[in-house]
Amino acid sequence: MTRPLLIALILIAYIIYVGFKHKETWKKLSIMQTAGVLVTFVGIISIAGVILFYGSRFITDAISGDITGFIIKFLGIVVIIVAAAVSFTAIAGKITNGVIPITRRDQK
Asked: Would you say which domain of life the source belongs to (predicted)?
């Protein structure tokens, strides 16, 4: 099994796990809200993936040092993931009128 296929399968399994874990929250949403959240999730994941793919290639071509390139790639990945999470939370919150983001039980 190739690495990208394995990563995709793990991502799909995690999405299914989260979907079943938060069944009550999904029941609060209308069909249009659920579709909007799913489209937003897929869109943000796609955009982040494209940026990571082409950004990684650009950085690899621009920087000659292996360690320096790795550090810059790692920092870029962290920034892209944080930006994707923040934007998804903001958009999903507007789509669902505050039902999503789900707060943890220990947070108030």
From this structure: Bacteria
Q: Give long-range contacts, CB 8 A cutoff, 24+ apart: 9-15.
A: none
What tens digit of pLDDT does each residue of 12-51 get? 898 899 888 888 888 889 999 999 999 999 999 999 989 9
Q: State the first-to-last Cα distance of the chain, in angstroms, to the nearest integer.
A: 43
Q: CA 74 from chain center: how many Å? A: 16
Token readout for 95 is 């789509």
- By residue count, the chain amounts to 108
Domain residue ranges of the chain, discontinuous segments joined by +: 29-103
Measured at the CA of 43, the angle between CA 41 and CA 46, to 5 degrees, comes to 105
